[in-house]
Design a protein that fits this description.
about 325 residues; mainly alpha; Cytochrome Bc1 Complex, Chain D, domain 2; two-stranded antiparallel ribbon; two-stranded antiparallel sheet; globular; binds heme C
Length: about 325
């Protein structure tokens, strides 16, 4: 979903009026601060209209389309209802929302997650496997080539191998109180449920996702970056509620991130046969609730990975 797209806003208004909810003025105020506000970012990627009318331009456009509607344009590799732009806002352009231009100029890079040097395409594979709960496209697949071409084009004019303001999410200091389920639930009910639903499953209009799923089968899996409470708190503080960046206190952001990640979601595709073994190897951190007992249930205790999560991904870096 593109933040600037009138179709998106009309879908949101349609949904809101269909649900007979009065949107707060702030939520629809387009001049409200966005995620970029607190990042110090000065770089502006080129305008969409500047995509050249050449074969290369067509591939750039394909990359943009994959960002905006991933289940449609990269169907084979997607196992949930999300699109890249749900987490990389404005089709990967928004500073403070892990923009693609800032990422592109910083690969290849070492990643502790897989203890390897990752090329940009290998980094993209990771988002398919975990965030999209799908399978990683093979290196050189037209889907990865299009996303790489789009990112390259967005980064026009940026120096390579240099940290750039706006990359990732703005830092969010730890708060004095440790994140808490009950406080997070209260924030969720007051500030999130309207759009994402009381059950976290999101909402669709005529088969098109308007508000993406935060947990459950339609969301990211246990191996995803968003499953880490610090990433989620930072993303939420800078980007949510949608259209109301930086309106939550840091404590509210940590609490609601904890609450969101204290719910069940698709199995970690790196599953080692038991929750204990998988937690020990991949989730041995207070920032992951995988394998922890919440409300009497062990999170992640749902057996082997299902559906489109392919088992034959051992050759893939992530
Ligand atoms: C559920 C949310 C989510 C979805 C959906 C998602 N990502 Fe990500 N992505 C993340 C998070 C979280 C990070 C880590 C950000 C950080 O470490 O600052 C990330 C990181 C990245 C990075 C590296 C950023 C950097 O600065 O190094 C790229 C590139 C990327 N994603 C591309 C994609 C693409 C392409 C898709 C769709 C195929 C996608 N992502 C889908 C959440 C998501
Ligand atoms: C006004 C509606 C609205 C509200 C309220 C809202 N969101 Fe969102 N949220 C969205 C939309 C729309 C997107 C996708 C953005 C896009 O595609 O451009 C999104 C995306 C997300 C994502 C990344 C995608 C995913 O499904 O994982 C997370 C996480 C998230 N929201 C969490 C929250 C939390 C937590 C709150 C409450 C503090 C909240 N949102 C409040 C509309 C909303």
């Amino acid at each position: 979903m593109n933040i600037a797209s009138p179709a998106t806003w009309s879908a949101i208004f349609g949904l809101i009026s269909a649900l007979s909810i009065a949107p707060t003025q702030a939520a629809v105020e387009t001049s409200a601060p966005n995620a970029a506000a607190n990042t110090g970012a000065t770089f502006e990627p080129p305008k969409e209209d500047d995509i050249p009318n050449t074969p290369f331009g067509n591939t750039i456009r394909m990359g943009r389309d994959i960002m905006l509607d991933t289940p449609k344009h990269a169907a084979r590799f997607v196992g949930n209802n999300l699109s890249c732009t749900n987490c990389h806002l404005d089709a990967g352009r928004m500073a403070g929302s892990a923009p693609l231009w800032a990422a592109y100029v910083n690969y290849p890079a070492y990643r502790a997650k897989n203890d390897k040097i990752n090329t940009y395409q290998q980094r993209l594979q990771g988002c398919f496997r975990f965030s999209m709960n799908g399978s990683a496209p093979p290196l050189g697949d037209p889907v990865l080539v299009a996303l790489e071409a789009y990112s390259f084009w967005l980064a026009t004019g940026l120096p390579v191998n240099k940290e750039v303001a706006g990359r990732g999410y703005p830092k969010l200091d730890k708060t004095t109180q440790t994140p808490d389920y009950a406080r997070g639930q209260a924030v969720y009910t007051a500030r999130c449920a309207l759009c994402h639903g009381a059950n976290g499953a999101g909402q669709s209009v005529s088969g098109r996702v308007v508000f993406p799923a935060l947990w459950g089968d339609g969301s990211y899996n246990w191996g995803a970056g968003m499953g880490s409470i610090d990433n989620a708190a930072q993303f939420i503080h800078a980007n949510m509620p949608y259209g109301m960046s930086y309106s939550l206190t840091p404590q509210d952001a940590w609490d609601v991130a904890y609450f969101m990640n204290a719910h069940e979601r698709p199995q970690d595709p790196r599953w080692l046969g038991s929750v204990e073994a998988t937690r020990t190897k991949f989730h041995d951190s207070t920032l992951s609730l995988y394998g922890q007992t919440i409300n009497g249930k062990i999170l992640g205790n749902t057996g082997a990975p299902k559906q489109t999560q392919t088992k034959d991904q051992a050759h893939i870096a992530p």
